[in-house]
Input
Amino acid sequence: MSVVPNATVAIHRCRTKSISLQRDAMKRCVAPVFKIGPWRVDRIRVVCFVCVACLILSTKTASAAESLKASIDKESAWTGEAVLMVITLYSPGPFDGTASFDLPELSRTSIIKIGNPVVGSEDVGDESFLTQRHEFNIYTQRSGTIVIPPFEVRFRGKESFVGDVKSVNATTSELKFESKRPPGTDSLGVVIATEKLNCEQSWTPDSLAHLKAGDVIERTVTRRVTGTSSIMLSPASSAAPEGIRVYTSDPEVVDKVTRGELDASRVDTIKYQVQKPGTFELPELTFTWWDPKAEKLQQTTLDGLTLTVAALPVGEQSSESAATTPTEKPYTSWAMGVSLLVALAVLYRPVKRIVEARRLSYHSVAARASREVRSACRANDARAAYAAVLAWCRIHSDRHEPLSPEDLFGDEWNRLSSYLFASGRTLSGWSGSPLLHAFNAAVKRRENHQRQRSRASLPAINPSH
Output
């Protein structure tokens, strides 16, 4: 009777031990997968953190490379010396249109765009981008640290060679450089920093031996500089002694880039009118500039001129005064005045309508677009001509008759597009004269076509039944 309970207890113990062994086996099999020590968890967290940080940094670097890159060529410059700022735009596909730069306005500092953008390509990591290199010259008359704050750049480019065009708004990084005032220039108004400045002058008329009161002497002063812009050349002095009236005209300024070097010139024309007889000394002109290569002030002087003006004979004076004050009969002036009033009263309304129609036509959007195209072509400004032609086609297009620059201007439009955007272009410059002729011909054809359509739409004078 005591054997059965012992057997039952033994069987129970065997089952309990078997279950325990099975649990231990499962723990040993599952432990390498789920049971991870604290040191292993920390290592995984660190590795994950490093991977995420690298991914973020690489993403930021890639996005920056795909947008733009801004830099300046020197950390220190003399006051008035040109500091080159380069902005490179990146696009996966071809660029579309003209880039826009919101250049900051700084006190006594100018930022000037030079040359045309240079199109190229650049590999960033495993990807290849098309680039546009834009160059600007920075001129400042301040000393100390010059800070160029971040500014926005807008351009359009394709996501791939066959993709859609998208707009890109990017912001440059902050740029700075040190401006040092050249010694001995504290008394100068504007410091010109250039290695070479040529000055010359000419006088008109050539012979000044027989001058009389009322005659005009013209003085033309020409200055040419290298490595700086014409805006840095201040106007030539127009000082003159008492008894001489001075007239000045707008200067002729030219800036051009030759093989990557900026050349500029300024031509000032000063006219001296002698008011009375006597001897007069026209002053000499002195120009001073700073040579950054030699690190010293340079100076050149243009000679003045001595004028001897003789008095007019008495008879000649009276004849000239009589010629300048002709006599008129009173009734003649009265009749002319009445006739003028009558003519104004009769023609006022027709003339007003004509003037108003001309004014509206001149200030219309279409006329303004045509003027911008012609102005850009005459100035040989390829970028402005490209944008103006697109705007003109957009204004004159409608939903039923869209205008295409390729159809209107043909080879000239393709030549302009290749000059601006072709990666392997070899042209040294672009002339807007052929495109201007093609544009005028297209406008004339369009006007003739519209005139014929308007005539065809008129009803017949004697319609037949």
Notes: Residues 302 and 322 are 41 Å apart (CA to CA). The first strand starts at residue 68 and ends at 72. The chain has nine helices and 20 strands.
